[in-house]
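Limitations
The structure tokens in this dataset are predictions for the assembled complex, not deposited experimental models. Users should treat interface geometry with appropriate caution, especially where small molecules or nucleic acid strands are included. An illustrative entry is reproduced here so readers can see what is and is not provided.
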Amino acid sequence: RKEVEQDPGPFNVPEGATVAFNCTYSNSASQSFFWYRQDCRKEPKLLMSVYSSGNEDGRFTAQLNRASQYISLLIRDSKLSDSATYLCVVNTGFQKLVFGTGTRLLVSP
Amino acid sequence: DAGVIQSPRHEVTEMGQEVTLRCKPISGHDYLFWYRQTMMRGLELLIYFNNNVPIDDSGMPEDRFSAKMPNASFSTLKIQPSEPRDSAVYFCASSSSLQGLNTEAFFGQGTRLTVV
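Predicted assembly:
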């Protein structure tokens, strides 16, 4: 079983739609959680950290369910510029960052 | 700060040749990571260092791969001998423990390796 699992997609949505991505992780001792964004042929960049209480940054909402070992990312009012691959990332301990394979999002006009 | 700097950006080499990838982390960062990215396997952590010491190299695929960090501002990933299946994008990233558990990893632009 992979340490971090994501649906690879692609998710094809129209502009303005709401879309949600999920991620599961296998190590119950994992300490912190993140979503990164990667544009085509570019390096990954931090989108947001994920806290147990849930957190929001503009149109983006991230949630963590430790009991189910599950992380989610919700994007509201999708923009064309949101088209990218979204990577779920888990700090499994000692700052070891394990990445999921990513979920590809395509937002169309 | 210039960010994480990797070189070369692109490398094409023949099977059997030695390949050396280089990375300069962000100044002051005490963690350095080497990742490999392919379409099939995504981003795989190969090895990471803390204060120049390797912490976990369980992701290194085989003995042909080796990594060093002789000082806080430089790391290398070497493949000897290289094989076509090593073709991938290799990313270096660095982070700072001063940020605690929610530390952000900053990535270099990657080295696109093609072994023919």
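Some entries come with short summary sentences. For this one: The mean pLDDT of chain A is 94.
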